[in-house]
Write a structure and sequence with these properties.
The complex is a heterotrimer of chains A (245), B (326) and C (297). Chain B is an all-alpha fold and 326 residues long. Chain B contains 15 helices and two strands. Chain B has a domain of 213 residues: ABC transporter involved in vitamin B12 uptake, BtuC. A two-stranded antiparallel ribbon of chain B has the order 1-2. The chains are: A alpha/beta (245), B mainly alpha (326), C mainly alpha (297).
């Protein structure tokens, strides 16, 4: 059983092939790193997996269940969570409210027009513990607008973890962070238990390299090189892609 | 809670209690039945504005077709009463038919958001106006339809303006309470999320379309309640009730009072109704004023009169306190 | 030629109805082409468009009735005056709200109310009818069917204007800039097109077309208070049907709506406005971007 299986995935924007025939097989509990130069199609791949975009061809399966035709919301209910490269949180709300919204998304309570959200002690306690998990427990009642970029990245991760996903897609979780913040996020990711499978896009190889079990190198919309860390680093094509231009 | 917060809450509660007392006792201190009737109209428009602002303020969707739903309810009551139905069944039918109309409005207009939503709701609203105006056999065309009598719930006749005001106030209070519950509920949180980050919300597992649809239905219900009260208050309904002006007024009331708050639409309805009544006493150019207020508010106080005035006052004060220093 | 002479009055009625439908479609095209262009370029549904149509009708009628100008001069004057009005609205109001589409929409709505009241104040509540220009009055009887010359002329004018607009968009530098702006405003700005000046030009052009439509329609529809808000939804429905920013969409949408509206008026007079809704429903359900619109990426 693979946690996430992507076969022949294709997507074009107005004649421009953004991804072509992508194959990915990711085992349960695996940490997979997807790297590649800008414009290689990494974020498009995530958008296809998460359901933000519809593929032109190919299939996606989550733990053997085909999800290619399911809308994004149904994929979330099946245990797929993601973070965004460009942070799209709810800036006017508090951190706690942001994480609560994430939890509410998978709860039947989201349809309830009579239950006051601020009275849902169970949900709020869960959100508080999700924030504590990323080290932001003390800031739960601060408005998102008053937080730093690094803190928002961690809220992103808290929102994804709060949903207790089976597969977690992280889109450049280190982008724009200071060295200290990178260390914090790195420790945070390392602490995620192995029952969550993680696929991570990272532009910068050095940061995430020791985190990954296997690495896929994307180039021009396709997987060019794939293997363990040592294999990928040793492969001459990797150097070509990164240094050849 | 610290002492200052407590004092503030106390003061707020005090003001609120006084306001409540004033509103409840309108028939006792307002001079003349005409003004009591105007007070009823303010409450009816407040309900209507809440209906429109549920979409503007909490779903981020601006409807310029709600006059169509409002008048659908008003016309249904008038037509049913004319056909010999009792008040109870006429009201129920009006709500049911307006909800059905709302479902059609929502299903079509929610194919898009933003500007497309505005265009489709406007077209749908105007089509309802065309129906009111042209379907002479049913609606009486330009001549409109009279409503023969008002209901007498629990044996209390609503024929006098004072009694009608009391009944309207009770309905208004119920609507306001339901609205308050709704926007503070878990579903209200889902709705606000779809306003701010629809894509993010669907990645989190929310059905954005269905959430918007449900909100539209509640909005349609409130428009129906307002429309029914309107028909009974005026005891008459004619095509201008369905015109674009009728859809634009609650939008103006919502944005002038402060959209996305609970009291903003109520304050907006009060302000616009006062301007409308005062203006109509001196000049007959309400549409000109409506348009001008629209342009002025959008240009200079897009966040609404209440927060906008506060901002202006703050700025003036800041300038004054800075002036001696420079 | 016996079969032709045997044409019944009924058939002739249908023909006339068809001619009227195409004529009305031509007027709708003058109205909606500008609306669609403005919307395509600026993303603003210009809710004063019906008011511009009505203003054109009033100004042109006054020029003919009061100032005794010849019809075509009056029509040119009406188009020019409405173009100036459009330019003023765009420069003084919409420009300041750049970036906030909702505010721009609400401002155009507010102006529409002001214009409607202004016209009532100046021209009163009675409809104003004007005669068709004398050169185009009457009609010709061909194959047993009476063709009113003025209506045929409107159709021809609409076709010529459609061709001119097409040539403008496809064959001139200005047109290339407008198309670039419609396709991708950001990119147009990057490659150095002065989008703000383009906005004014397109807004004036759309206004002029609407104003011209208003005076061209005046001999048929007459000009009356409420004409603005009767025409505006027709423009909206045409654009929803045809797709925004598409010239061919406006043309096809106008003719379809012209037919449905005119046949509706005769066959189902009480529901004529309501059945406009049907093509809109079909298009929204099957193809929300409109018949000739492009899907949003």
């Amino acid at each position: 059983m693979t946690a996430l299986a992507v076969r022949d995935l294709q997507k074009s924007f107005g004649g421009l092939r953004v991804t072509q025939q992508i194959h990915l097989e990711i085992a349960p509990g695996e940490r997979r790193l997807i790297i590649g130069p800008n414009g290689a199609g990494k974020t498009t791949l995530f958008n296809l997996i998460a359901g933000d975009l519809r593929p032109d061809g190919g299939s996606i399966a989550l733990f053997g269940q085909p999800i290619t035709r399911l809308p994004a919301r149904a994929r979330a209910h099946l245990g797929l969570a993601r973070t965004y490269q460009i942070i799209t949180l709810f800036p006017k709300d508090t951190l706690l409210r942001n994480v609560t919204l994430s939890l509410l998304g998978l709860s039947r309570l989201r349809w309830n027009p009579l239950a006051r959200l601020d009275r849902q002690a169970h949900l709020i306690a869960q959100a508080e513990s999700a924030l504590a998990r990323v080290g932001l427990g003390a800031m739960a009642h601060r408005s998102l607008a008053e937080t730093s970029y690094g803190e928002r990245r961690r809220v992103e991760i808290a929102m994804a973890l709060a949903q207790n996903p089976r597969v977690l897609l992280l889109d450049e979780p280190f982008a724009g962070l200071s060295i200290d913040e990178r260390g914090e996020v790195k420790a945070l990711l390392a602490a995620i238990p192995r029952d969550i499978t993680i696929v991570m896009i990272e532009h910068d190889m050095d940061v995430a390299l020791d985190f990954a079990d296997r690495i896929s190198v994307m180039h021009f919309g396709a997987i060019a090189v794939e293997g363990t860390r040592a294999e990928v680093v040793a492969d001459p094509r990797t150097k070509e892609i990164y240094l050849g231009e | 809670m610290n002492a200052r917060q407590g004092a503030f809450q106390g003061a707020f509660r005090g003001t609120f209690a006084v306001a409540l007392l004033l509103v409840a006792s309108v028939p006792l201190w307002v001079p003349g039945s005409y003004y009591i009737s105007v007070a009823s109209e303010v409450l009816i428009y407040a309900i209507f504005t809440l209906s429109v602002d549920l979409l503007i303020g909490y779903a981020g969707l601006v409807s310029l077709g709600h006059g169509g739903l409002f008048s659908l309810a008003a016309y249904t009551v008038a037509v049913c009463l004319g056909a010999g139905f009792g008040h109870f069944s006429a009201i129920l039918l009006a709500i049911a038919i307006t909800l059905a109309g709302t479902a059609v409005f929502a299903a079509l207009s929610l194919r898009t958001t933003g500007v497309g939503f505005i265009m489709i709701t406007l077209a749908l609203g105007q089509i309802m106006w065309g129906l009111a105006y042209r379907w002479v056999g049913l609606t009486g065309g330009d001549n409109g339809i009279s409503v023969a009598s008002r209901p007498a719930p629990f044996g209390v006749t609503l024929a006098t303006p004072a009694h009608f005001y009391d009944a309207t106030l009770i309905v208004f209070a119920l609507c306001l309470f339901a609205y308050w519950m709704f926007v503070n509920s878990a579903f209200g949180a889902s709705l606000k999320g779809t306003r701010d980050q629809p894509r993010r919300m669907s990645a989190l597992g929310y059905d954005v379309w269905l959430i918007r649809f449900c909100a539209f239905m509640f909005s349609g219900f409130l428009a129906a309640v307002a429309g029914i009260l309107f028909a009974y208050r005026a005891e008459f309904i004619s095509p201008p009730t369905a015109a674009l002006t009728a859809s634009a007024e609650p939008v103006l009331m919502a944005i002038s009072g402060g959209s996305g708050t609970i009291l903003g639409p109520v304050v907006g309805a009060l302000l616009v109704e006062i301007v409308k009544n005062v203006a109509s006493a001196y000049i007959s150019r309400w549409n000109m004023m409506l348009g001008a207020i629209f342009v002025l508010i959008v240009m200079f106080m897009p966040e609404g009169l209440v927060p906008g005035t506060a901002r202006l006052v703050r700025r003036l004060r800041a300038r004054r306190s800075k002036a001696p220093a420079t | 030629m016996a079969p032709l002479r045997a044409i019944t009055p009924g058939v002739s009625m249908w023909t006339i109805l068809a001619i009227n439908s195409v004529t009305f479609g031509g007027l709708l095209f003058l109205l909606s082409a500008g609306f669609s262009l403005i919307f395509g370029l600026m993303r603003v549904p210009n809710l004063t468009h019906g008011s511009m149509f009505m203003l054109g009708g009033y100004i042109g009628s006054t020029a003919i009735v009061t100032w005794h100008l010849p019809f075509w001069l009056a029509a040119a004057l009406a188009a020019a005056a409405v173009a100036v009005f459009g330019g003023v609205v765009e420069r003084l109001l919409l420009r300041r709200l750049a970036g906030s589409v909702l505010a721009q929409v609400l401002v155009t709505l507010g102006i529409a109310f002001m214009v409607s009241d202004f016209c009532l104040m100046v021209w009163g509540g009675d409809p104003i009818s004007i005669d068709t220009p004398s050169a185009l009055s009457g009609g010709t009887r061909t194959l047993g069917v009476y063709f009113p010359t003025y209506r045929i002329a409107i159709i021809l004018i609409a076709v010529v204007i459609a061709a001119l607009l097409w040539a403008l968009l496809e064959r001139t530098r200005l047109g290339a800039m407008i198309r670039a702006g419609v396709d991708d405003p950001e990119m147009a700005r990057v490659v150095g097109i002065r989008v703000s000046r383009l906005f004014t030009v397109v807004f004036c052009l759309g206004a002029a077309l609407a104003g011209f439509g208003g005076i061209m329609g005046a001999p048929i529809l007459s000009v009356y208070p409420g004409l603005d808000f009767a025409m505006l939804p027709l423009a909206l429905v045409v654009v929803i049907l045809g797709g925004t920013g598409s010239l061919i969409g406006s043309l096809v949408g106008s003719i379809v709506i012209g037919f449905i509206y005119n046949f509706g008026l005769v066959l189902l007079p009480q529901l004529a406005y309501f059945i406009l809704f049907l093509p809109m429903v079909v298009v929204l359900v099957l193809r929300p971007q409109g018949l000739f619109g492009r899907a949003a990426p």
